[in-house]
Amino acid sequence: MKTMRKITSIYAVVLLIVSLVFTSCSKEGCTDSNATNYCSDCKKDDGSCTYKATIQFWHNQTTANNLINDTPPSTSLTYYVDGTIIGSSAASVYYTGDPNCTQNGVVRITKDLGKAKTKTSTYKVVDNLGITIWEGNITFDASKSCTSIQLTY
Questions:
Q1: Confidence (pTM)
Q2: What residues contact residue 78 under an 8 Å CB cut-off, 6+ apart?
Q3: In the chain, pLDDT over 90 holds for what percent of residues?
Q4: How far apart, in whole angstroms, are the C-alpha atoms of residue 35 and residue 145?
Q5: Which residues contact 150 (CB under 8 A, 6 or more apart)?
Q6: H or E element in which residue 67 lies
């Protein structure tokens, strides 16, 4: 009787190990490392991947000088993406090079892209006088950690 229990216990352990191996090998989920819900343990993509992307806007000293020395001067800037205000800054605030994407004070937006890896949006930058200084299209791309848009004037 003890031998039978021992065999049954061994059989149960072996069966458990085999089932764990097979279920972990076929685990489904998001296998795209650019996705917000990436599953490093998943072996098979189930189409559930979702994405986000970040864009930031900046300008250099030459552009800042041109804005504030214009007649009349542009002293502040308001940034819009898809018609929604995402931030503002003094026109005199500039960067000597492409700012780090975690740097404070930079006007940036992170957009939820859903299941799309890219999304095109419109942007517009308006000064304190209501004059549109810049406008155009931007593409949010989940494969990039952050896209920098340098604005020149």
A1: 0.79
A2: 85, 87, 88, 125, 126, 127
A3: 82
A4: 11
A5: 58, 59, 60, 98
A6: helix 61-69
Q: How many CB atoms lie within 10 A of CB 108?
A: 21
Cross-strand pairs, 87: 79
Average pLDDT, the chain: 89
Strands across the sheet containing 51-58: 107-114, 51-58, 147-150
Residue type, 45: D
DSSP string for residues in 74-134: P-EEEEEETTEEEEEEETT---SS---TT-TT-EEEEEEEET-SEEEEEEEEEETTS-EEE
Domain ranges of the chain: 2-45, 51-150
Q: Minimal CA–CA distance to 124: which of 95, 153, 84, 90?
A: 84
Buried b (16+ CB within 10 A) or exposed e, 25-37: eeeebbbbebbee
pLDDT tens, position by position, 48-93: 999 999 999 999 999 999 999 999 999 999 999 999 999 999 999 9
Q: Is 98 within 8 Å of 150 (Cβ atoms)?
A: yes
Residue type, 23: T
Q: Which two tokens stand for residue 5?
A: 């229990």
